[in-house]
């Protein structure tokens, strides 16, 4: 019988299946405090990306995410397994961003460079100046949206959430979210056209 060359060598460690969030949460609630760091490692990149898009400032975004994880740990007993942990956590992040934006007026002081970095990924070339210029134009236009419209656009297009997921995260009715996204897109289109004309 021929050897299966794709099989790992005898005695080699087999890859362990990834433990799901609900299992980790049960460990944390049972007293394994260190297990929470797995949740942090797993969800931090997405939370930071969302917060940076919403706040436009990487330092403020990092603070908001840290606060969100502290709150998530504190209220972990309220989490219900029928809800995805990622969505539950993202709701906390969004609320932290709303609070910071409200009290520190961060929606006005929007850093387009940090926005671009938050939205970039390794599959895009940094040498594409046209794409970089379009990204900066979009970031500037996004900075001119009100907090609610910006939040809706970020969740819908940057995070690719469905309207049902957006509603769960924000606590806003689906019909209102659709209206926010529609108005935001019209406003963005107008702002981008103004830039092309000027």
CATH class: Mainly Alpha
The largest pleated sheet is described as: none
Give the uncertain stretches in residue-range form: 106-111
**What proportion of the residues is helical, as a percent range?**
55-70%
Estimated structural class: mainly alpha
State the shape: elongated
Q: What is the correct CATH architecture?
A: Orthogonal Bundle
Order of helices and strands: HHHHHHHHH
Overall number of domains: 1
**Mean pLDDT across residues:** 82
* The CATH homologous superfamily: RNA polymerase sigma factor, region 2, helix turn helix motif
Terminal Cα span: 73 Å
CATH topology: Rna Polymerase Sigma Factor, Chain: A
Number of strands: 0
State the helix count.
Answer: 9
Structure description:
The chain is mainly alpha-helical. It has one domain: Rna Polymerase Sigma Factor, Chain: A (Orthogonal Bundle), CATH 1.10.1740.10. 67% of the residues lie in helices and 0% in strands. The chain has nine helices and no strands. It has helices at residues 21-29, 36-55, 58-74, 85-104, 112-119, 129-143, 147-158, 163-170, 174-197. Helix 5 crosses helix 6 (129-143) and helix 7 crosses helix 9. It is elongated. Residues 106-111 have low confidence and may be disordered.
